[in-house]
C-alpha cells in the first residue's frame, strides 16, 4: 500500500500551499470583517488553473485527478473556507456536472468561461421548505412550446449573487426525486432575482443568496441531462462534493493545529511556554490525530473515485468525520489561544465560525449517518 503522493501531486501541493500563503492567508481576516472576499481572487484562481482542475483541457480545464483536486481543497480550506467554497461550488458542483452530463453545446458554452474565471456557477437545490429532504423540492419548470418556464424559491445558494450561470433543480414531473430535472439558467434572465443573505455566522467572505425564479423562460437547450434525471445529477455532484468539503475541513483543522503549536510555543504562563504543559499537549495531540485520520478518510474516498470504484459511503464517512473534527479542532485552538482566541486579531475564532457550517451543508452530519447506516444495514431510516 502506497499512501504517498506522486511527484506531480507533490508539486501541485507545494504550488497550492505557497499560493495560499501568499494570496489568501494574509487577507482572510480582512475579507471576513468586510463580509466579502476581494473578487479579484477569482481571476487569480483561474490563472493558476485552479478553476479548471479535473475539467478536460479541450473545455478550457487543466485536467488532473480527483486526489489532486482534494489537495487543492485542503490548501484552500487552510487559507479561507470562503475561498474554498467559491471553488468547490463553481468547479466541483457546477462545472463537473456540466462536464459529466452536458451536451457538446453546453460544454462549449459554459466550461471555458467557468474554468477561465470569467464567471462563477452556483448550485440551486435547497429551498425554504426543503433542505435535507431535497427530493421533495417544489420549484416548478413547466413546458411552454419549446421553452421551459421556471418558478420558485431557492435559499442559501453559495455564489448566488456573483454567478453567471445557475444550475437549478426544478420539478417537471410528479412528486419525489424522479420528478426533478436540472437546468442551466443564465442569471441575467428576466425574472431571475437574487438577494444576498447577510449576517452569516461564518463564511462571511462568500456571497450566499436567496434566489427567486419568477416565470424565468429558458429554451430546452438549457436542460442538463434527461427529464427526471435532475436528482441523480444533484446527488452525483454532492457525493464528490462531500469529499471536497471533507478535504477543506482537513485544511481548516490543519490551520488550527499549526497556529496552536506556534502560539503555544510562544505564549508563556507560570514561567514557561504553555506548549510545555501536558494538558495543552493533549489538545495538540488530539487535533493532530483527528486531522490525520480525517485526511486518510479523504484520501481513501478520493482514491476510490480515481480508480472508478464505488465511493458513496466512504464519501459520507469522510465528510462526517472531517467536518466534526474540524469543529473540534477549531474549538480546541480557541482554548489554546485563551482570551486571544476570542478576538479576530487571531485566526482561530473565524476558523470556528467557518467550520460550523461544514457539518450542515451538502448533507448534515445526521444525514451522513443515515446514509452510512442505510449502506450498512440495507434499511433506510430517512
Ligand atoms: P433541515 O433539513 O431542516 O434540518 C434541520 C435539522 O434536522 C438538522 O440537524 C438535520 O440533520 C435534522 N434532520 C433533518 N432530517 C432528518 C432525519 N431524517 N433524521 C434525523 N435528523 C434530520 N444549498 C444549495 O442547494 N446550494 C448551495 O450552494 C448551498 N450553500 C449553502 C451555504 C451555506 C452557508 C448554508 C448555511 C447552507 C447552504 N446550502 C446550500 C443549504 C444546505 O445544504 C442546507 O442548509 C442543508 O442541506 C440542511 O437543510 P436545512 O437547513 O433546511 O435543515
From TrEMBL:
Protein's UniProt name: Acyl-CoA dehydrogenase
Q: Which family does it belong to?
A: Belongs to the acyl-CoA dehydrogenase family.
Q: What is the scientific name of the source organism?
A: Actinoplanes philippinensis
Identify a single GO molecular function assigned to this protein. acyl-CoA dehydrogenase activity
Q: Which InterPro entries match?
A: Acyl-CoA_DH_CS (IPR006089), Acyl-CoA_Oxase/DH_mid-dom (IPR006091), Acyl-CoA_Oxase/DH_mid-dom_sf (IPR046373), AcylCo_DH-like_C (IPR036250), AcylCo_DH/oxidase_C (IPR009075), AcylCoA_DH/ox_N (IPR013786), AcylCoA_DH/ox_N_sf (IPR037069), AcylCoA_DH/oxidase_NM_dom_sf (IPR009100)
What are the residue boundaries of the Acyl-CoA dehydrogenase/oxidase C-terminal domain, all occurrences included?
228-376
Acyl-CoA dehydrogenase/oxidase N-terminal domain segment(s): 6-118
The alphabetized UniProt keywords are: FAD, Flavoprotein, Oxidoreductase
| Record flagged with keyword Cytoplasm | no
**Chain segments annotated as transmembrane:** none
Where's the Acyl-CoA oxidase/dehydrogenase middle domain?
A: 122-216
Q: Does the keyword Flavoprotein apply?
A: yes
Requisite cofactors = FAD
